[in-house]
Every structure is written in C-alpha cells, then in structure tokens.
C-alpha cells in the first residue's frame, strides 16, 4: 500500500481552518496515489484540552469538524485527537473512511463490548485497513506494550504526544534515527514504523516534525524535513513483490542545532498564534541575555526585537550589550524611567523590570525573561517576580545555553567570547572545593539537577554515582527552598523530558531526603522488583471477575451501560457519522562525563 504523512503546523482547535487544510491535503495525497493519509497528534485539536466547563461544546465542534472531513476527504485518513480521560487528556485515533468516523482505540473497545482487560494496549490500539494490520502508539510505553505482547502487526503508527526534549534524542524522530530507539523497535516488532511528527508550538510544547518511515529491517525509506511542513508519500510493501524501495541514509543529529531551531519555532509560533509579533527584553552583555536576544532576532527578525541596555551592569558589559545590538540590528530604546539613586541592589533590579514593562507597553511587545533552567531550579529567589510574560530559555540548563552560544557563533560570530564567559555559578557549599574551575562547577551543578529532575533518581543515587555528598545535599536543599519563588516566574517552553515545575515540592513540607546506606537502598529495589508480579496477579484476578460479570449481563444491559459510558462520544459525533468497523538512554550532551547513570 501507499501511505502518506501530512506534517503540518496548525493552531490547536481551529477546527474550521484545519478541516479545510486536511481536506485539501487528502486531495493531494489521493492524487499521488496514497491509500491512507496520517495526520500528526497535535494538528487537529492540539495535545491539551480546554477546562471542564467547556468540554461539551469543544467535543461537539470537534465532532462536527470530523464529520465535515469524513464527507469530503478524497483519501482515507487517520486523525489522532486528545480526549478527556480519568487522569487527564487521553489520546484516541479516528479512522476516516467511506464517509464514516471510526474510533480505533479505547472508544472502539467500549463500542465493541470486548470482555478483555482494558489495559491490553495491543488489543485495543489496532485496526485493519487494505489488508494491513496497524498498531497505534502515542508514547514509549505503548510501543513497549506491543513489543512485550509480541503483537502481530504489519505496521506501527507512532503519534508522539509530547514534543521535543533535549535529553531524549528519540523525540527528534527522523532527525535522530542513528541515536534514537526506533530502528531497534522496528527489528523487535518485525513491522514497519511510521513516525508521524507534529510540527510547531502547541501550548508550551514544541514539536519539530521530521516524520519518518522505517521498514521492518530498520531501513529508512522516507523522511520529512525538521521544522518544515511537508507531505511525505511512501510505498509500504508487505512482501518482496514489486519495485525495490530506495533506502535513505539517516542524517547526523546535532542536538544543539535542533534545540536552537526548536526554541526559534516555539517563540515564533507562540507569538503568532496569540496575535503578537514583537518582543522586548533587557540586554545586559552577559550569557543568557545575549543568547536570548540572538534567538529572538533569528526567530522574529531584528525589527521585531526591542531592547534596553541594563544600566546596572558595569561599563564593559554595557558596551558588550550595545555591540551585540548593533551587530544584530535590533531596536534599542532608552529607559522611560530613571534608576533610583540607591545602593540597594535588589531595588535597582526591580526598577529595571519596571523599565522593561514600560518598554513593552510602549511598543506593544511581549516582555521576555532571559533566565535559564539552572536559575529556575536554584536561583529563583533572586527574581521574586518580574515584568516578563515568557522565558524561552527557562527549560535549558546553563551548560546547554553555553553550547547554544557556541553553536550560533559557528553560523555567524555575533556573540562576544567575553559575553559567553560571563555567567554565574550557583553558590553551593563545598562546590568550590569539589571543582577547580567555573566550567566544571557549573557542569556538576547541572548534572546533579538532571539526575534528580530528568532521570528522577534519589539523593542517594546521585551521591553514589557522583560523590561530593555535601554538594548534592546542598543542591537538593536549594532546589526545594526555591519552590515558592518559582511560582511567580513566567512560563517557559518545555524542551526537556521534565521541567522544574513538573517537580512539585509541597509548600511547608518538613521532610527532606537523606543519603541512605546501600542495604536500605537494596531493600527498596527488591520491593520495587516485586511490584510488577503483584500487579500482574491482581490483573489476572480482575480479568476473571470481568469475565464472570460479562457472562451474567444480558445484551440489553450491556447496551445501556455502553450508552451511558459514551455520552461524551455521542456529543462528539452527533447526527450520526460513527460507524462500526475494523478497527531509552538520555545522554545529557555537552557535560564531560555524559549521563549520570550507565545504560543499566
């Protein structure tokens, strides 16, 4: 069969405009001989849902739009959508064919009344089309479920629900196949893998596109470009009959360049989709603000970037800031208000934020903050509020900000070396004694934070791996102590597998973790090792109970219960239109010692 992937950037929930685009793309796909067209996870409705009070109207409008597509699409389509679930948004995929909208995931399980355990992803996440058995996955756990079940599928449609994450190479999809997981997954599944990449900024997630098609032998036969819209059409043969497929060479993955492009796309999309065009920021000649102003200039164009020079900095840094502004050609404005004549450092910092607010209001721009993830984690108390509405670098460790500066200078040398070297290292007890230079101190800080945040390891694990107990304890204590101050910071793009804000520390919590002996940790690991078998046994009991209950229920009762469960579905697909049918490793990157943990 011939499969197509429409990699498009849309505005979430703009059902009218998006429906017309999808209908047009279905026409184009049909003209190129495609049998099935797949759309990305975020393209139709986005990865997030509106508030509960708006869900009913949202579902009705989404259902009407799906029916419009079903009535006009020249090519069968699969369209993933976010639905309301018990624990938040849950993914569902709609198969559009023959004028009907057919759910192929959990809703089809309810509709068909299958008396099997609902957690059996390999049973509910499949559908047959044109003689091909497809599996549908939205995350790595879904893929693992197909592998563990040894599912007999011909192809896996992978619709990633989360965007690009710097610490997860696989999130870059086709741009990082040499470093990602999908080639191994193709071998394990003995099936084609079609990675359908979303593109653009949706809420605070950034999706980089780069859709791809792999054969069961892990050969790349189709790849859409990253950060660009594309219609990818690939022949997907289930046997050796037919013309040989051209095998492509996967490109080399440049994590810093991918991050730069992702942040640029996120900033541009965030402003465009909110109806804004300009940004304002404070330029102080130091690392973070220099990288941010260059990023904003690249993303929006220099005429849309407005800056004021931070007069609280020394003459050398003010000179570096002015030099960068001239090089980029951005708009520099004098402050609307003078700084107070005071020795109070915090007061003058606050006044700079007032100046930024005045500048942003005067030029109709969105004010930006230049702080990074290291700041959010350990230095948030310094800010205590501010004028900014968005912090584009807020999920990027300072170590990676340095790498971004070097990367940008390889394109054109705009950021002075003195600015790149001008950054602070958080003051942590024992850090100076542990590391001899600012670079290695910062690396140790960021690795320790990543150990706790991205890898979700305990304090004992961090100390066991890295040593320097006093430094690890100090970093974790500071991380917890900044929780209240973080609440007033502006949002940032989520470009890691776990942002600092996703690590929620209950306010007023007296308990703090401590470094524990190896024996205690071994006991804890043993208990966790027993958990899967206990859950499996409980699942077998539950499945038996469900079978007994199913055998005792009359068809009329089943129909009544299903109708009750699918109230939202009936709203979504009102007036008909629903038809029954077939339905890793995370290397940290620039840090000298790599990931804080081994592959094991």
What can you tell me about this protein's structure?
It is a single chain. By secondary structure, the protein is α/β, with parallel strands linked by helices. The chain folds into two domains: 2-51 and 59-239, Nitrilase/N-carbamoyl-D-aminoacid amidohydrolase (4-Layer Sandwich); 262-502, Rossmann fold (3-Layer(aba) Sandwich), CATH 3.40.50. 42% of the residues lie in helices and 14% in strands. It has 22 helices and 18 strands. The strands form four sheets. It has a six-stranded mixed sheet with strand order 5-4-3-2-1-14. Strands 6-7-8-9-12-13 form a six-stranded mixed sheet. Strand 2, helix 2 (55-72) and strand 3 (77-85) form a beta-alpha-beta unit. Helix 7 (255-273) crosses helix 13 and helix 16 crosses helix 18. It starts with a strand and ends in a 28-residue tail after the last helix. The model is unreliable at 108-123, 555-566 and 568-600 (pLDDT under 50).
How many individual β-strands?
A: 18
Secondary-structure-derived class:
alpha/beta
Q: Calculate the terminal CA-CA distance, rounded to whole Å.
A: 40 Å
CATH superfamily of the largest domain: HUPs
* Largest beta-sheet details: 6 strands, mixed
Secondary structure: helix percent: 40-55%
- Overall, the morphology is globular
Q: From the 3D coordinates, which CATH architecture of the largest domain would you assign?
A: 3-Layer(aba) Sandwich
**Would you give the CATH topology of the largest domain?**
Rossmann fold
> Radius of gyration in whole Å, from Cα?
26 Å
Please count the helical segments.
Answer: 22
Runs in which pLDDT lies below 50 for 5 or more consecutive residues are: 108-123, 555-566, 568-600
């Amino acid at each position: 069969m011939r499969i197509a992937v429409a990699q498009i950037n849309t505005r979430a929930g703009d059902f009218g405009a998006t429906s017309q685009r999808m209908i047009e793309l279905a026409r184009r796909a049909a003209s190129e001989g495609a049998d099935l067209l797949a759309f990305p996870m975020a393209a139709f409705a986005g990865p997030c849902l509106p508030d509960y009070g708006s869900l009913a109207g949202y579902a009705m409008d989404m259902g009407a739009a799906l029916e419009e597509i079903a009535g006009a699409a020249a090519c069968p389509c699969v369209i993933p959508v976010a639905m309301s679930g018990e624990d938040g948004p849950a993914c569902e995929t709609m198969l559009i064919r023959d004028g009907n909208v057919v759910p192929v995931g959990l809703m089809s399980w309810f509709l068909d009344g299958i008396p099997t355990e609902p957690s059996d992803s390999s049973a509910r996440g499949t559908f047959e089309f044109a003689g091909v058995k497809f599996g549908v996955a939205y995350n790595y756990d879904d893929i693992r479920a197909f592998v563990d079940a040894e599912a007999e599928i011909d192809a896996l449609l992978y619709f990633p629900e989360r965007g690009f994450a710097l610490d997860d190479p696989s999130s870059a999809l086709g741009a990082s196949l040499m470093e990602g997981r999908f080639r191994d997954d193709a071998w394990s599944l003995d099936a084609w893998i079609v990675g359908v990449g979303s593109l653009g900024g949706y809420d605070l997630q950034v999706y980089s596109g780069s859709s791809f098609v792999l054969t069961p032998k892990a050969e790349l036969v189709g790849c859409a470009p990253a950060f660009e819209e594309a219609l990818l059409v690939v022949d997907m043969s289930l046997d050796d009959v037919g013309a040989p497929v051209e095998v492509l060479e996967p490109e080399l993955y440049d994590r810093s360049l991918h991050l730069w492009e992702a942040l640029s796309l996120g900033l541009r999309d965030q402003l465009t989709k909110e109806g804004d065009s300009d940004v304002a920021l404070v330029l102080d000649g130091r690392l973070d603000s220099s990288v941010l102003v260059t990023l904003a200039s690249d993303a929006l164009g220099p005429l849309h970037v407005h800056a004021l020079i931070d007069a609280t900095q020394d003459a050398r840094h003010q000179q570096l800031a002015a030099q960068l502004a001239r090089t980029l050609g951005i708009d520099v404005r004098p402050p609307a208000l003078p700084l107070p004549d005071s020795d109070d450092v915090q007061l003058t910092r606050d006044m700079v934020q007032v100046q930024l607010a005045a500048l942003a209001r005067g030029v109709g721009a969105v004010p930006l903050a230049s702080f990074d993830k290291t700041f959010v984690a350990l230095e948030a108390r310094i800010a205590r509020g501010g004028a900014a509405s968005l912090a584009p670098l807020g999920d990027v460790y300072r170590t990676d900000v340095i790498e971004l500066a070097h990367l940008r200078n390889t394109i054109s040398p705009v950021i002075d070396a003195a600015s790149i070297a001008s950054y602070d290292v958080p003051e942590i007890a024992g850090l100076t004694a542990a590391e001899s230079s600012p670079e290695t101190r910062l690396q140790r800080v960021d690795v320790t934070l990543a150990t706790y945040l991205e890898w979700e390891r305990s304090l004992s694990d961090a100390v066991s791996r890295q040593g320097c107990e006093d430094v690890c304890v100090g970093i974790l204590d500071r991380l917890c102590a900044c929780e209240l101050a973080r609440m007033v910071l502006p949002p940032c793009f989520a470009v890691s597998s776990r942002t600092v804000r996703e690590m929620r520390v209950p306010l007023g919590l007296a308990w703090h973790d401590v470094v524990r002996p190896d024996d205690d940790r071994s006991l804890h690991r043993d208990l966790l090792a027993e958990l899967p078998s206990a859950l499996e046994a409980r699942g077998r009991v539950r499945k038996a109970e469900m079978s007994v209950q199913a055998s005792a229920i009359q068809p009329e009762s089943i129909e009544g219960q299903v109708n009750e469960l699918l109230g939202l579905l009936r709203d979504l697909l009102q007036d008909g239109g629903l038809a029954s049918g077939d339905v890793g490793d995370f290397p940290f990157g620039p840090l000298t010692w790599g990931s804080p943990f081994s592959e094991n």
